[in-house]
Design goal:
Layout lengths: L10 H4 L2 H10 L4 E7 L11 H7 L4 E5 L21 H16 L4 H9 L2 E6 L17 H10 L3 E4 L9 H15 L4 E5 L12 H9 L4 E5 L9 H13 L3 E6 L8 H14 L3 E4 L10 H22 L5
Parallel strand pairs: 1-2, 1-8, 2-3, 3-4, 4-5, 5-6, 6-7, 7-8
Helix pairs in contact: 3-11, 6-7, 8-9, 9-10, 10-11
Length: 316
C-alpha cells in the first residue's frame, strides 16, 4: 500500500473512503491537511488558494466557506474576469453559480487542478443563529449535494463565534451517517471554542468516534489555552480506542505565526500521536502562509517526502 505522500495524480481520483483511511493510517502521522477560504480573492492572483496549498505540500484540501446555495470558488470560477471589471465580474459570478449548481463534475475539476483529496466544511450551527448562510449548515440538502459533487470528505466543525457546541456536533453525525454512508470520510470535532466550550473531555471526543466520525479533530498542542502535549495524547488515546483516526488542528491564527511556532506545534502533535495534522486558513487572504504549510510538512515527514508531494502536484 502506498503512503499518502507517495500518491500520484490518478490515485486521488480512484481511491475510495476505506482505502484513503487505511493509506492515512499506513502513513504513520505524516498526513497534511490545509484549509482554504474560497469566498474571497486568493492570496496570489490567478492561482486559487487550493492550488497554492497543494503546491506547498498539502495532501488534502478543505474548502472553508463553500456555500452549497451559491457554489463559487475564487481563483477558479473567476478565471478571465477581474474585480476591477465590476459589471463583467458580477455577470460571470451569477452565471458560474447557476452552472456549478448542476455540474456533477464541478469538484472533479478542482481535484484535476490540485491533484489532491478535496473536502468541505459544514457547520451544525444552532437554529437560534439566524444570519448564518443556509448553504454552509449541516443539512440533508447540503450533505446530498456534497455526495453529488463527489467530495472526498466532509468536516463537521465550527468557525469562530458560531456558538456550536459538542452536542450540536454529535447530533449532526447521525444525519451524516445516514446520508453519506460509505461514500465520504466524516471528520468531526472542535479546533477552538467557536463561542462555546473547548474540547478537553476524553469522553466527548470518544463520543464523536462512537457516533460516526471516521476522524476526530482536536486542537493541536499550544493552540488553545491548556492544550499541551500530554492532554492531546490522552484525547488521542480515546479516539484510537474506538478505531477512529485523530487529527490535530491549528485553527487559532497561528498558521500565520513564524516557522518556529509551526515546527513546535507539529512536533508536539506528532509526539501526541496525531494521524493527520491540519493547518488553518487565517494567514493572508484565506490561507496559511504557504511557507508554513511546507514547514509543517517538513517537520513531520522531512524534505524528501515533502518535495515528493510538491512534485506530484500535476503528474498524471
Amino acid at each position: 500500500m502506498k503512503r499518502i505522500f507517495e500518491l500520484a495524480f490518478n490515485d486521488f481520483f480512484n481511491m475510495k473512503k476505506r482505502e484513503i483511511l487505511e493509506t492515512i493510517r499506513h502513513s504513520e502521522g505524516r498526513t497534511v491537511v490545509a484549509e482554504c477560504v474560497i469566498s474571497c480573492p486568493p492570496l496570489i492572483y490567478g492561482v486559487s488558494n487550493a492550488e497554492l496549498a497543494a503546491s506547498f505540500g498539502a495532501d488534502m484540501i478543505t474548502l472553508n466557506t463553500f456555500d452549497f446555495e451559491k457554489p463559487f470558488i475564487f481563483g477558479i470560477d473567476d478565471e478571465g474576469t477581474s474585480l476591477s471589471e465590476t459589471e463583467n465580474f458580477i455577470k460571470n459570478y451569477f452565471k458560474k453559480i447557476e452552472e456549478n449548481r448542476v455540474n456533477a463534475d464541478y469538484i472533479k475539476k478542482v481535484k484535476s487542478i490540485t491533484g489532491r483529496f478535496i473536502g468541505v466544511n459544514l457547520e451544525p450551527v444552532p437554529e437560534s443563529v439566524k444570519n448564518f448562510p443556509k448553504g454552509r449548515r449541516v443539512s440533508k440538502e447540503n450533505l446530498e449535494k456534497a455526495r453529488f459533487y463527489g467530495f472526498d470528505y466532509v468536516v463537521i466543525a465550527a468557525n469562530p463565534n458560531t456558538g456550536v457546541s459538542s452536542e450540536d456536533i454529535v447530533k449532526s453525525l447521525e444525519l451524516c451517517r445516514e446520508i453519506l454512508e460509505e461514500d465520504m470520510i466524516i471528520i468531526a470535532g472542535k479546533m477552538h471554542a467557536a463561542g462555546r466550550e473547548n474540547v478537553f473531555d476524553p469522553q466527548v471526543v470518544k463520543g464523536f468516534a462512537i457516533n460516526g466520525a471516521d476522524v476526530v479533530l482536536i486542537p493541536a498542542p499550544g493552540t488553545v489555552p491548556g492544550m499541551d502535549m500530554d492532554t492531546a495524547k490522552r484525547l488521542i488515546r480515546e479516539i484510537h480506542s474506538e478505531g477512529a483516526l485523530a487529527m490535530t488542528a491549528i485553527g487559532t491564527s497561528q498558521e500565520s505565526a513564524g516557522r518556529e511556532t509551526i515546527r513546535d506545534i507539529a512536533m508536539l502533535s506528532k509526539m501526541a500521536g496525531a494521524d493527520i495534522q491540519h493547518i488553518g486558513d487565517a494567514g493572508f487572504s484565506g490561507m496559511a502562509f504557504p511557507e508554513n504549510i511546507m514547514e509543517l510538512s517538513i517537520t513531520i515527514r522531512g524534505k524528501r517526502h515533502t518535495y515528493r508531494r510538491m512534485g506530484y502536484s500535476s503528474r498524471k
